[in-house]
Amino acid sequence: MTGISPASDDVRDEILAAEARRQAALVAVDLEALADIFDDSLVHIHAAGIRHTKQMLLEHTETRKPYLEITRGDLEIRIAGDVAIMTGDLTNRMRAPGGGERTLSGPVTQVLHRAGDGRWRFVSFQMTPASEGVWGKLPSEENAEKDAGR
Q1: pLDDT score recorded for residue 1
Q2: Which of 71, 59, 65 is nearest to 29 (CA)?
Q3: What would you report as the CA-atom Rg of the chain, rounded to the nearest whole angstrom?
Q4: Strand order of the sheet with strand 51-53?
Q5: By the 8 A CB rule, do 15 and 22 touch?
Q6: Which of 3, 127, 140, 147, CA to CA, is 20 to 30 A from 53?
């Protein structure tokens, strides 16, 4: 590895396209597309702490059809060789296990790897549900908000 740097515009566009495809495939329950964009080594950790392999996530998606809508906030994409690390907020509007709907939001870390065919595939996903922020903001965060005129 040559170090970690922000993604170039071209690479950023490729990764954002892969993320858009992932979102659309989860909502549409397009298992063929999901199988193609998830690496066989995928580790997907849901907000509740449940860990799924690629096959388990495909089964989860097929049998529960949980995803109704997925939206993302600003995404930071860093590159280390053929590995991309994408972080940013995510909101899932989902079917609830007992019926009805629920919305779950929080920061997400995703790792993608550029495969031998040149395409980016997801190898890791970790969502942490948003909390009540018991620690409050750091002085540097408060200063940044003041500087931004918030």
Answers
A1: 45
A2: 65
A3: 17
A4: 5-6, 67-80, 83-95, 101-114, 120-127, 38-45, 51-53
A5: no
A6: 3
Contact predicate 82/118, CB 8 Å: no
Report pLDDT digits (tens) over 40-83: 999 999 999 999 999 999 999 999 999 999 999 999 999 999 99
94: left (phi over 0), alpha (psi -120 to 50) or beta: beta
Length of the chain counted residue by residue: 150
Mean pLDDT of the chain, nearest integer: 94
Complete domains list, the chain, with CATH: 5-147 (3.10.450.50)
**Half-sphere exposure of 102 toward its Cβ, with a 13 Å CA cutoff?**
9
| Longest CA span, the chain | 49
